[in-house]
């Protein structure tokens, strides 16, 4: 069980003190931490120039009866669930799928949270990146981080949760999707919605030299430079348009990419 000093030492050992980072985390492998997620977040804010995390809110999504073809979605399948969807609010909790750390960041007194109804981000010292997001370019903050020599940090998680790979997929020209969400007053169309990330762990073997990894108790922290990650993803997709897709036969979004590339 790491304490605050061990966490701080691990993050600082990554040598990214003057870099902005986007982080994804599961804190469970650390076991009990005195002070909980706040302790982890404080150690991160003390170790990096800026920190952002996805604070996505999937419960705002609704599924229409009709829409554009080959969109990785079953139109009409929301009949029983659309009425459970909720209108996005700036203080809406981050989806619990993302773990407790993004919600802890969102609640930090110095945090900013963007207003995308599904794909919002929260950050501290990161307004330069957060303010680049638009409804049309939901993942723009990741590109802005990369321009400032940003890194992606994976805390006890692998690349299947690495949202930045989605940014690189779009750079590579891979098909994007349309989703719909309940904003404050109405249903909003959300273009450039990313595909499925289940197959992303395949990227790891292409980044052995770029990955910095530090063990922490029973867990680990690892970091990869965004610009290099983007380059590797784009090279892979250029070579094989089906790279990094998952193997599930019923995966609607990966299958939609396959149809496009056939
Ligand atoms: Zn898939």
H/E series: HEHEEHEEHHEHEEEEHH
Bound chemical compounds: zinc ion
Largest sheet: 7 strands, mixed
- Average pLDDT: 97
Number of DSSP-assigned strands: 10
Outline, from the CA principal axes?
globular
| Poorly predicted runs of 5 or more residues | none
How much is the radius of gyration in Å? 18 Å
Secondary structure: helix percent: 25-40%
Topology:
Blueprint (H helix, E strand, L loop, with lengths): L3 H10 L6 E6 L10 H10 L4 E5 L6 E2 L37 H7 L5 E2 L7 E4 L2 H4 L9 H8 L3 E5 L7 H9 L5 E6 L4 E7 L18 E5 L2 E7 H14 L12 H10 L1
Parallel strand pairs: 1-2, 1-6
Antiparallel strand pairs: 2-5, 3-7, 4-5, 6-10, 7-8, 9-10
Helix pairs in contact: 1-2, 2-3, 6-7
Zinc ion binds next to helix 8.
Features:
single chain, 262 residues, alpha+beta, seven-stranded mixed beta sheet, three-stranded antiparallel beta sheet, 10 strands, binds zinc ion
């Amino acid at each position: 069980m790491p304490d605050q000093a061990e966490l701080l030492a691990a993050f600082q050992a990554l040598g990214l003190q003057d870099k902005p980072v986007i982080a994804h985390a599961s804190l469970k492998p650390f076991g009990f931490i005195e002070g909980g997620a706040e302790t982890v977040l404080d150690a991160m804010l003390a170790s990096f120039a800026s920190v952002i995390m996805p604070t996505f809110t999937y419960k705002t999504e609704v599924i229409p009866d009709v829409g554009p073809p080959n969109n990785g979605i079953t139109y009409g399948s929301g009949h029983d669930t659309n009425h459970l969807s909720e209108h996005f609010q700036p203080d809406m909790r981050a989806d619990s799928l993302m773990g407790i750390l993004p919600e802890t960041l969102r609640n930090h007194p110095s945090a900013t949270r963007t207003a995308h109804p599904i794909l919002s981000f929260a950050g501290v010292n990161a307004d330069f990146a957060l303010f680049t997001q638009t409804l049309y370019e939901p993942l723009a903050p990741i590109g802005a981080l990369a321009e400032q020599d940003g890194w992606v940090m994976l805390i006890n998680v692998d690349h299947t949760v690495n949202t930045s790979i989605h940014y690189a997929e779009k750079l590579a020209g891979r098909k994007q999707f349309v989703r719909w969400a309940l904003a404050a007053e109405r249903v909003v169309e959300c273009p450039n919605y990313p595909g499925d990330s289940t197959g992303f762990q395949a990227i790891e073997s292409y980044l052995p030299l770029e990955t910095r990894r530090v063990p922490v108790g029973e867990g680990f922290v690892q970091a990869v430079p965004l610009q290099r990650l983007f380059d590797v993803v784009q090279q892979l997709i250029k070579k094989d348009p089906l790279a990094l897709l998952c193997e599930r036969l019923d995966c609607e979004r990966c299958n939609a990419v396959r149809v496009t590339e056939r």
